[in-house]
Design goal:
By secondary structure, this protein is mainly α. The protein has 13 helices and no strands. Helix 8 packs across helix 10. The two termini are about 30 Å apart.
């Protein structure tokens, strides 16, 4: 559903780019339909996280890319190459390894235990690291944006790096959203069971968690769409999937201390499957046609003004 939602939004953006008087996103029916699918996928993920470990579910985000290739081909006319097919096969093998070796969610933590985990040094360092990544990526985006404005013709390396910053920003916020989603959902459900509806809406903790989840989700969608406005959907979704998966798996491993559940063998196999899946995703990004030949040779000044 997430892949379908992203492709519907890209389809809407492509359609509007051909019109002189473009509609705002909230008035584009296909963009809004894509938003509905995107929200629905988030709700389903939050429910799934109640029954499985984060390390077990996070690698499955790579399946978004596999679905994305199909939707991008039929909705947007993007080609599927032999390298794309190889990437799909590598991703599937990697997913089989990670899902079978990931720790199972056998221990149900209480609200107090989940809140206490927020104060652990490893989790605080994790959040600080991701925030630093987000700030760095934003300044890199501004730097590459300035380079593209100053250059008469786009350079492939600079243009590709510029696109990566959008997707990586979306992935960082998406991974943070998944990390907080599992604990927040459990805490909110327990708050509702203890105090009912009145106790739930009067809980300051619930509103803080909703604000965190809402903020990370909105920024993920924002940067994803900013990237889709300029780059092919396969390129943006590929990079976003890699970063999202990395941030979410790292978050689950450190926050829930899932690293303690790994044996030497399962930990090695899980890491191998994770790297294998990310390698398959990277194949898509490396093969993506960024449209530089057409844009730069025909009308570089017009293309640069659209940034």
């Amino acid at each position: 559903m997430m892949a379908l939602g992203v492709n519907l939004q890209k389809y809407s953006l492509n359609t509007q780019s051909k019109i002189e008087k473009q509609l705002p996103k909230f008035k584009q029916k296909y963009w809004m339909l894509g938003l509905v699918f995107y929200i629905s996928s988030g709700i389903m993920l939050s429910i799934a996280l109640l029954f499985a470990s984060q390390s077990q579910l996070s690698p499955l985000m790579s399946m978004v890319l596999v679905s994305n290739v199909v939707f991008a081909h039929f909705l947007l006319g993007e080609n599927i190459s032999k390298i794309d097919a190889l990437g799909i096969l590598i991703i599937i093998v990697g997913l089989c390894i990670t899902t079978t070796t990931a720790p199972r969610a056998e221990n149900i933590l209480s609200k107090e235990e989940l809140i206490d985990l927020y104060t652990h040094a490893l989790f605080i360092c994790y959040v600080a690291l991701i925030v630093a990544m987000i700030v760095s990526l934003y300044f890199l985006k501004c730097f590459f944006e300035k380079r593209n404005h100053e250059s008469e013709q786009r350079e492939l390396k600079i243009w590709r790096a510029y696109g990566i910053t959008f997707a990586a920003l979306a992935g960082c916020f998406g991974g943070l959203c998944v990390t907080f989603m599992k604990s927040a959902t459990t805490i909110i459900v327990e708050e509702a069971n203890e105090g009912g509806f009145v106790g739930l809406v009067s809980s300051w903790l619930m509103w803080i968690l909703i604000a965190v989840l809402g903020t990370t989700w909105v920024f993920q969608l924002y940067w994803l769409n900013k990237g889709l406005e300029k780059f092919p959907v396969i390129f943006i979704v590929s990079i976003e999937a890699i970063v999202n998966e990395f941030v979410a798996v790292l978050g689950g491993t450190l926050y829930f201390e899932e690293y303690k559940m790994f044996s030497a063998l399962t930990g090695t196999l899980f890491g191998f499957g994770l790297v294998l899946g990310m390698t398959g995703v990277a194949l898509f990004a490396s093969q993506a046609d960024l449209g530089l030949d057409i844009e730069c040779k025909e009308a570089p000044s017009v293309a640069l003004n659209e940034i």
